[in-house]
Each structure stands twice: as structure tokens, then as C-alpha cells.
Design brief:
Radius of gyration: 62 Å
CATH architecture of the largest domain: 2-Layer Sandwich
Structural class: alpha+beta
Distance between the termini: 113 Å
Oligomer: single chain
CATH topology of the largest domain: Alpha-Beta Plaits
Helix content: 40-55%
Shape: rod-shaped
Largest sheet: 6 strands, mixed
CATH class of the largest domain: Alpha Beta
Strand order of the largest sheet: 10-12-13-11-14-15
Length: about 525
């Protein structure tokens, strides 16, 4: 167990005080000897009693004398027996069992337990008064502890230790270590940008620089000698367990503890954020004598980081908003506002990529060109608003009938183009026929503003099976097929085929025969 400097000084002062007291008793006898003092007291008691007995002996009143001795024996606890013996050795008066308890001392001299006092009648010795005192039955230790010198030394040791310790503890707390530090060292200490304090092994402040003093100027308590963990402006922000405070952990573990953050006055606008770093101060044997603690005020940096995070959030929100607006602009730029389908502006950009990919990968691609039958007549008869409603309903029916990967474009006023990736000619004809039937049966009834309105559309289909040189040629072939469908009576689906090939493929011929039937 390592003794603290305060305890070592206290023990030294107690030892010096006790030594001085023993020397004073040795040379000047400041404390009486207990045995000698007891002998003197008992001798005076015996002399007083002998004087009384000598005064009563000439009266020959034996009964009164024995009664007096008995009364004295009963009222004196230390007395065991009393006897009056003549010079011839006969005991003439007694109180208590004197013959059994009395043992004649050597040389007839008094001892601590047996006191002998001569009795004189006139000028001659008549006999002697014998007082038998009870022996001290306490053990050696108890008798030793009852010695005045021992009692005094024990009192000095216990009371002195407490008084010295309290006085020195209070005095050392208010000693200013800065008074022994050279001015140039103190100046360098105060010039540091961080708040710095030097603590003792118990976490009490021994030294603090001006920066630390200025961290909380309203603190009323003095810094030197105060416990760092109990400073009012720090205590509320620290863990409740004092052993978990960073400077106490550094002292206990003999290792540095860095990066501990404190929010001083976090609930007020002028709150500060600090980073605390602690390093133990070790002696030559590796024992912790204290701790060097720094308080780095990072409030400005923290606020800058907070502002930067806010700006990043605002930037991200602005980026998302810009992205949404760009998507909206792209949608407006690529979508037809009336039908919501892709417009002709992006047709060749998108469809041309699909055409090139299909050619490179050897996959199928088909194109359907659609035109609303007798649309000019509808506009002339019912007005352009009904015409717009017809275009919307036709676009809606086509979008319902196509596959997810198919693309529907508004190619012209009442003309649409559908690009079908991965669809061969027969599949494209089936989809076109499904759209034609849906337009014929549902578009007219869907326009409730005009009762009995009949809406139909004609379809021309072309695919990569016919080996077009480019997308424009395939669209041109679909347009030629659409022209043939219009010429053949409208409201039908026709594929494009090479007339120079002679016989047409059975599937295509079947589709043409079905489309050629009157509606």
C-alpha cells in the first residue's frame, strides 16, 4: 500500500510530537508514577486511620473501635481487611478476615498491597496498624494501558493524527503551485491555445492556465484546490460515476484517454463543444502522481461542420429537385401532351437503337403504323375537341393491348407508330389485330359526348423478316402496308410483303385474308 504525501507528513508530525513528550517526561517528570502515587495515597490513608485508633485506644472502648474499623472497611472498596497488632504480635482489633489475608512484609516495611503504620501511646510504640488492600486483578495489558504515559501517547497519536491531517489537507489545498513556477514557464503555459489543468492523484486542480479559466468566467468557486469533477459547469455534463471521468480513468489506468467530448450548456444558444484529452503524470516508479488534462474548444469547428452538413442536405434536396425537374422536362420533351405516348421527336433516337441492337444480336423487331379512319370527317362533323378525345381513346386502347416492352409513339396528327422489340411478324399481326378490335368496339362508346360514334383504324405491319436496310425503310414498308389497308377498305390489318416474291408465306396470306373480309 502506497502512502500519500499527506499521510506521510501526518505520521511524521505525530512521531515528532510523541518523541518530544517522552523526552519531557524523562527529564522533567511531567507525568507522575502510578505506583508511587498509589503508595503515597495509601500511606496517607493509613496515617489518618492510625491517628484515629491511637486517640481511641486509651479509652479501652473495644466495641466502638471495632465498629469504626468495620465501617471504614465497608465504605472503602480497595481495603480487604484492617488489623491492630500489639508489639508482642497479638491482634487485638480486626475488621474483615485479617489473619488469613495478612502476610507480614519483609523487614516490616509497607508494600503496595500491605501498609504498616506504627501506633504510639504517649512516647512509646504500642503496636501497629495493618491495612490490607485488594490486589490489582487486571491483566498486564490493561494495567499497561492505564499508565498515564501510555494513555497520553495514545491520545496524542489518535487525536493528533486527525487534527494534523485535517489541517494539512486544508492548508495544502490552498498552496499555489504557480508561485514556484518561473514566470517564463507560466507565460508559455498561459499562451497555449487549449485549456490546460494539472491535477493531483485525487483529481484536484493544482494548476490551470488562463484559457481554462476563461472557459466559464461566471464560475464562483476558486480553481486551485478544487476538485475538477465538482466544478458546477462541468459536473452536469459528466458521467455520474466519478471513476468514469476521463482524468480519473487516466490516473487509474496509467494510460492516456483522448477524444472525450463534452457539450457544455448544450441546451442554450451559447453552448460549447469541447474535446478532452488526458495523460497521466507518472513518477520514477511508474506510479500515477496526477494527470495533465486539456480542454480543446471545438465549438466553431463543430458549428462549421453542422452548417456544412446542412448545406450538403440542402444540396442533396436541390439535386433531387433538379432531377425531378429534369425528369419532368424530359417527359415533356419526349411525351405527347395529349395522349401521353412518346412523341416523334424521340422516335428515331429510340427506335433506331432498337433496330441496331436487333440486327447485331439476331433478334426480331416489328413495326406497326396506325391511322384513324375518316378522322378529318370526325373533326368536321363534331369539332376538334371531339377529335382530340378520339385520339386519346385510340391511344389508350393501344397502350392496353401492347406488351410491357413495346413502345407507342404518336407519329403524326391521327397517326401512331408502335415498335415491338423481339416480336416476329406473326406476333405483331396478332397484337395489331387485338388493337384494331379494341378500337372498333370500345373507342366510340368511350366518348360519351357523341352518341353512336363509330371509330375504326387501319394498321400496316413490317418486320425484320423482310430484311429492311434500316429503320426508315422498315417504317416506309409499314406505311405502304397501311396505305394498302386504307385502299382495301379501312379497319383492317395488313403486313408488308415483297410483290416480286410471287407467292406469299401461308401465315401472312392467312392474315391478309382475314383482314380483307368485310367488316
Amino acid at each position: 500500500m502506497r502512502l500519500t504525501p499527506l499521510l506521510r507528513i501526518t505520521l511524521a508530525l505525530i512521531s515528532l510530537t510523541a518523541t518530544l513528550f517522552v523526552l519531557a517526561d524523562l527529564f522533567f517528570k511531567v507525568l507522575p508514577d502510578r505506583v508511587t502515587q498509589t503508595m503515597q495515597v495509601r500511606a496517607r490513608v493509613g496515617e489518618a486511620l492510625a491517628a484515629q485508633v491511637a486517640a481511641l485506644l486509651p479509652r479501652h472502648d473495644r466495641e466502638s473501635l471495632e465498629a469504626s474499623l468495620t465501617a471504614i472497611l465497608e465504605h472503602t472498596e480497595e481495603l480487604a481487611s484492617i488489623g491492630v497488632r500489639r508489639t508482642d504480635g497479638a491482634v487485638v482489633l480486626r475488621a474483615g478476615d485479617h489473619e488469613r489475608k495478612w502476610h507480614s512484609p519483609l523487614g516490616g516495611r509497607s508494600t503496595l498491597d500491605q501498609v504498616v503504620v506504627p501506633l504510639h501511646v504517649g512516647d512509646q510504640q504500642w503496636g501497629q496498624l495493618e491495612l490490607r488492600f485488594r490486589p490489582d486483578e487486571r491483566g498486564f495489558v490493561r494495567r499497561w494501558l492505564a499508565e498515564p504515559l501510555v494513555v497520553t501517547l495514545l491520545f496524542i497519536s489518535i487525536a493528533g493524527a486527525l487534527m494534523y491531517w485535517l489541517y494539512l489537507r486544508r492548508a495544502l489545498q490552498h498552496l499555489d503551485p504557480a508561485s514556484v513556477i518561473p514566470e517564463r514557464v507560466q507565460s508559455a503555459f498561459d499562451a497555449m491555445a487549449e485549456g490546460v489543468v494539472v491535477l493531483d492523484a485525487r483529481g484536484r486542480i493544482l494548476l490551470a492556465n488562463n484559457v481554462f479559466r476563461g472557459l466559464h468566467g461566471d464560475a464562483p468557486e476558486p480553481l486551485i484546490g478544487a476538485t475538477l469533477s465538482m466544478l458546477s459547469w462541468l459536473e452536469a455534463e459528466l458521467p455520474r460515476d466519478a471513476d468514469e471521468h476521463p482524468w480519473m480513468k487516466a490516473i487509474r489506468d496509467h494510460t492516456s484517454h483522448t477524444g472525450f467530448t463534452l457539450d457544455i450548456g448544450a441546451n442554450v444558444e451559447a453552448g460549447r463543444k469541447m474535446v478532452v484529452n488526458c495523460a497521466p503524470i507518472l513518477d520514477a516508479r511508474g506510479g500515477a502522481r496526477g494527470c495533465l488534462t486539456t480542454f480543446d474548444d471545438v465549438t466553431a469547428l463543430h458549428r462549421s461542420n453542422e452548417r456544412l452538413r446542412e448545406l450538403l442536405v440542402e444540396l442533396a434536396e436541390s439535386k433531387n429537385e433538379t432531377k425531378k425537374k429534369n425528369e419532368e422536362l424530359e417527359r415533356l420533351a419526349t411525351r405527347d401532351p395529349l395522349t401521353g405516348t412518346l412523341n416523334r421527336r424521340v422516335f428515331y433516337e429510340v427506335a433506331d437503337k432498337l433496330f441496331v441492337q436487333a440486327c447485331e444480336k439476331g433478334t426480331e423487331l416489328s413495326c406497326i403504323l396506325v391511322d384513324i379512319d375518316q378522322f378529318k370527317s370526325i373533326n368536321d362533323r363534331f369539332g376538334h375537341s371531339i377529335g382530340d378525345r378520339v385520339i386519346q381513346e385510340v391511344a389508350r386502347r393501344m397502350q392496353v393491348c401492347v406488351r410491357t416492352m413495346d413502345l407507342v409513339f404518336r407519329y403524326g396528327g391521327e397517326e401512331f407508330c408502335i415498335v415491338l422489340p423481339g416480336a416476329e411478324l406473326e406476333t405483331a399481326l396478332e397484337i395489331a389485330e387485338r388493337m384494331r378490335g379494341s378500337i372498333e368496339s370500345d373507342c366510340g362508346p368511350g366518348i360519351r359526348e357523341v352518341l353512336g360514334l363509330q371509330v375504326t383504324a387501319s394498321f400496316g405491319v413490317a418486320s425484320l423478316e423482310s430484311r429492311p436496310a434500316n429503320l426508315s425503310q422498315m417504317v416506309d414498308w409499314a406505311d405502304q402496308a397501311l396505305y394498302q389497308a386504307k385502299h382495301a377498305g379501312r379497319n383492317r390489318v395488313l403486313p408488308w410483303v415483297r410483290t416480286s416474291l410471287g407467292a406469299k408465306p401461308p401465315a401472312i396470306e392467312k392474315q391478309m385474308l382475314v383482314a380483307a373480309e368485310p367488316r
